[in-house]
Amino acid sequence: MIKRRYFLRLAAAGMAFPAFSNFIRTWFPFDNKDIVLTEEAMRIHRSAIVVDGHNDLPYKIRLKGPDAVETLDLMINQPEFHTDIPRMLKGGVGAQFWVAIGWMGKQADGRTGQSICLEEIELIHKITKKYSSVLEMAYSADDIINIRREGKIASLIGIEGGNAIENSLEVLRRFYRLGARYMTLTWGETIDWVDSATDRARHGGLTKFGEKVVLEMNRLGILVDISHVSAEAMRDVLRVSQSPVIASHSSAFALAPTPRNVPDDVLHSIAKNGGIVMVNFYPGFLTRKGAKEDYLFWEYMLKLKTDAGLSEIELNKLLDKFNEEHPVPGCSVERVVDHIDHIVKIAGIDHAGLGSDFDGISYAPDYLKDVSFFPYITQVLLNRGYKEADIHKILGGNFLRVFRMAEEKAPGNL
């Protein structure tokens, strides 16, 4: 272990040379134990449109049963979740992509990934309608801006897992008509037309049909999400796509080498494409030690997926038990900002954003425990010398630019 006095000398050197400081944080991460929110940080945060690219609360609610939307009160604190409306308001969330999962295999009751995805899309609409005094559905960049002017939170729909389209472009069009504005091409499983980052590759990236899916998403104005796909598939998407792409909830591979993260060459290509990487808050995607544990999780997941007899509830219980027995090392919000720093360094300030993965991750970093903690990201960015305009870009401005560009490139013909 490096001795404390030498570590302090290295840290001091990093203060004088920012590039060296980034090197020190990567290899010898240390956390500020007392991050204090300042009035300046809160002013900047309140004046921004904070866009979170990925929240799995609909999945958590659906697992509670068909009447959960009616019986659950999101206007009061829900400690078993990362998300409820009071904490969203406290965290200054301006626009939230709620995720409808499309990656489930066929269930014992006959439901498919498509039918489960449709259930969750309907659930998102029900949640937004139930809390219409706070939430409002958004389908465009202008919708987000107008909804924020009214003091509400914009609700958007993302689909996680191209399995849900069941190899049909018409189903993809149906999802667009129902409000979906991005689709993660796959999840933890390689499917007929694209390789997953955490499954065995079968296609060397994207197939010819996969290219058709990407181009149809461009035509419709559905953002192509490269989170969860293999690095080769990321490269194929960036070669094919005529619109900016997103990684809705991924981080930088250089800092945490898990296949769920984005390599530097892909970051360079995203900059050329005009897209964005929205940093995931899961500690398994943020540190080198965390990445090692994350790899074990996906290997275990692959084993479970071979058991066709496992129900959705049984699968989740086994995964929860695995997480308890194989805890990922914790970290701080500062590690999230490390990944933002790296994306900015490689791709530029216009290509970093936030994709929390709240309620889809087992736990979150210190000072970022739930949706109420978003202002701490602003504080750490401010502490590291980011200017107000650049902080606004990272918090949501970059996503709004990408979303608008995708809309402008889409003929919108259904």
Describe the protein.
- With 414 residues, the chain is an alpha/beta fold.
- It has one domain (49-409): TIM Barrel (Alpha-Beta Barrel), CATH 3.20.20.140.
- 48% of the residues lie in helices and 10% in strands.
- The protein has helices spanning 4-16, 18-27, 39-47, 57-62, 68-71, 85-91, 113-130, 141-149, 169-177, 208-220, 231-240, 264-273, 288-305, 312-325, 333-347, 374-383, 388-409; strands spanning 50-55, 93-101, 135-137, 153-160, 180-184, 223-225, 246-247, 276-279, 352-354.
- Helix 12 links the parallel strand 7 (246-247) and strand 8.
- It is globular.
Beta-strand segment tally: 9
Give the CATH architecture: Alpha-Beta Barrel
Number of domains: 1
Number of helices: 17
- What would the average pLDDT be, to the nearest integer? 89
Proportion of strand residues: 5-15%
Q: Please give the alpha-carbon distance between the first and last residues.
A: 61 Å
Quaternary state, please?
single chain
CATH homologous superfamily annotation: Metal-dependent hydrolases
The largest sheet is: 6 strands, parallel
Question: What is the CA-atom radius of gyration, in angstroms?
Answer: 20 Å
CATH topology category name: TIM Barrel
Structural classification: alpha/beta
Which CATH first-tier class would you pick? Alpha Beta
